[in-house]
Amino acid sequence: MIAFEALQNSVSWGPLSLAVRLAAVEGGAAYTNQAMREKTLKELFKGESVVLPKGKGGERVACLITDSRRVVQSSLFFAMQGAAFDGDDFIEEAIGRGAAAIVSEKPKPRLCPIPYIQVIDIRETLARVARKFFNYPDKQMDLLGVTGTNGKTTVTTLTQYLLQNPDSPVGLLGTNCYDLGGRVLPSYRTTPESVDICAMLAQMHDSGCEHAVMEVSSHGLEQKRVFDFNINCAAFLNLSKEHLDYHESMEAYFAAKRLLFRDRPGLKHAVINRDDAYGERLIDDLKDTKVERITFGRHPSADVRAENVDCGPKGTTFDLVWPKGRMQVETHLLGMYNVSNILASLALCYVLNKDLYVLGKRVSGFEGVEGRMEPVNQGQPFRVLVDYAHTEDALRNALNMLQTVTPGRVLTVFGCGGERDREKRPKMMAVAQALSDLVWATSDNPRYEAQSAIFEDMRTGLSEEAHVSFLEDRRDAIEAALQEAKPGDCVLIAGKGHEAYQDCGGSVLPFDDRAVARAWLTGRGYSGG
User: Fold this and answer.
1) Which of 164, 207, 235, 409 gives 20 to 30 Å between its CA and that of 72?
2) Overall average pLDDT of the 443-453 stretch
3) 337 and 397 share one domain
4) Using CB atoms within 10 A of its CB, is residue 263 exposed (0-12), middle (13-18) or buried (19+)?
5) Per-residue pLDDT at 518
6) Using a CB cutoff of 8 Å and minimum separation of 24, what contacts does 112-119 make?
7) 234 CB contacts (<8 Å, ≥6 apart)?
8) What pLDDT is recorded for position 365?
9) What share of the chain has pLDDT > 90, as a percent?
10) What's the structural domain count of the chain?
């Protein structure tokens, strides 16, 4: 499977349009003729505020492409502006590769031998055209969108687990993977480009999915990757400081999240965290709409809420209360923040008219999400957990929980990514040192930024009595923490979770926190689960 391997090994992790099509065919799960049939330019641009070139419109379009390197015969090439490249610079290459037509926001070049369509907003146009090309797959199933700073992967994965059964698979698009019902692709972006979402929703529909759950990032919303999509149920989990290098302020960040709920065609239900201040704002903000607001949380007025919560070292119990009943829920998931995640999933199921008595019992069988408080257990006398926590709030939640359930010390390994929000670095350090007994600061996808510069920012969050070691090599840091651990301690390896790579200076190097920890433990004679 060439395309599948390319996705795993790609350094650029670039657009997926052609790769999705190739992987679908090579994997034996090609689209149906209906989903894959060609369309004409006239069909695709019907109703759009554009004028097709005189005498044109009958050209057949076989695929929609946003990366000139993946243009094949009869492609419709969208010359989009990216973070590093301008698609208009590659129009000539796309024509040479056999593009049937070009779509761009800029005026037509003087020499262009194929149909050229100028649009006002290319991302909006791409989303609308993609939905037409794939026969509106977002309307052919219940599409659930989940947004928030923390918890999206856990909520979407748990919701998929609760909704699916052997006769009815549930699609999933998110940080860890793209589950298309009949097969699973590796994820390259939390919220893919609109054309890739449509392509994968079409495969889900062909595989018999009646529901699809997707993580919706603030970047994806602001960049219109789900523009005009028929998302009939959307969930808001929480909002804390993250991505401020991109959004610049919390107000701008909230405004991006709000795009999932306001002026959304087809949105019937909004599931909102009543315990979050921004959630309360969103509840109020939707008062003037016809969207049904269902709230969740520990707040006494939440529609789906938790009471009598008992968080222990091996799991959590709580009383689930909703308008139609009450029952006790047991889960392997740890901590209060996971209670919130479970409530969000159950609230999503509730608005779909699912029986919470049945699903509340099913929660106990959910083993968790890859890279989210994932245990590495080789029979050692201390706990080792790998978690994706890479924000101040997520790290605080994780460490607060571990302090309450760990009889010994909490030992933390973490880093801050390069070329990302610098303001969070000292804040994460302050949280780590305040809530850990010992800390090893290390690398976490430094990208093109010098690790020494990242450490310099992190050091500004140190107190005079901090017990922190700085080790650039992440493997060395993990092994140092494991070497220090004693019976009853807990080692938290935070920041990368499920990721199996390190992004260093433009190279994507194999690196898996879980594998590193497991190898060290095995080398010390621990071999049992």
Assistant:
1) 207
2) 93
3) no
4) exposed
5) 95
6) 115/41, 115/52, 115/53, 115/56, 115/57, 115/59, 116/53, 117/41, 117/45, 117/50, 117/52, 117/53, 118/50, 119/48, 119/49, 119/50
7) 144, 145, 146, 147, 216, 260, 261, 264, 267, 269, 270, 271
8) 95
9) 74
10) 3
Q: What is the CATH number of the domain that holds 166?
A: 3.40.1190.10
Q: Are residues 146 and 79 in the same domain?
A: no
Kindly state whether residue 395 falls inside one of the protein's structural domains: yes
Note the pLDDT of residue 35. 43
Place of tokens 């330019």: 41
Q: How far apart are CA 99 and CA 73, in angstroms?
A: 6
Question: What are the two backbone dihedrals, phi and then psi, of residue 2, each rounded to the nearest 5 degrees?
Answer: -60, -50
What is the spatial distance between Cα 511 and Cα 492, in angstroms, rounded to a whole number?
17
Q: Which of 521, 464, 453 is nearest to 491 (CA)?
A: 521
Secondary structure (H, E, C), 277-323: HHHHHHHHHCCCCCCEEEEEECCCCCCEEEEEEEECCCCEEEEEEEC
CATH assignment of the domain containing 122:
3.40.1390.10
Residue 9 placed within a domain: no
**Is 349 within 8 Å of 361 (Cβ atoms)?**
no
pLDDT for the residue numbered 246: 66
Whole-angstrom distance, CA of residue 351 vs CA of residue 438: 44
Helix (H) or strand (E) holding 361: helix 356-362
Q: Let me know whether 241 and 209 are in one domain.
A: yes
6: confidence class by pLDDT, cuts 50, 70, 90: very low
Q: Would you put residue 442 in left (φ > 0), alpha (ψ -120 to 50) or beta?
A: beta
Do residues 442 and 484 lie in contact, with contact meaning Cβ atoms separated by under 8 Å?
A: no
pLDDT band at 48 (very low <50, low <70, confident <90, very high): confident
Which among 140, 209, 149 is positioned nearest to 173, based on CA atoms?
A: 209
- Contact yes or no for 402/490 (Cβ under 8 A): yes
Whether residues 361 and 382 share a domain: the answer is: no
pLDDT digits (tens, 9 = 90+) for 114-147: 999 999 999 999 999 999 999 999 999 999 999 9
Same domain, 183 and 322: yes
Whether 20 is in a domain gets the answer no
State the Cα–Cα distance between residues 334 and 330, nearest whole angstrom: 11
CATH code at position 467: 3.90.190.20
Q: Residue 53 sits in which domain range? A: 31-133
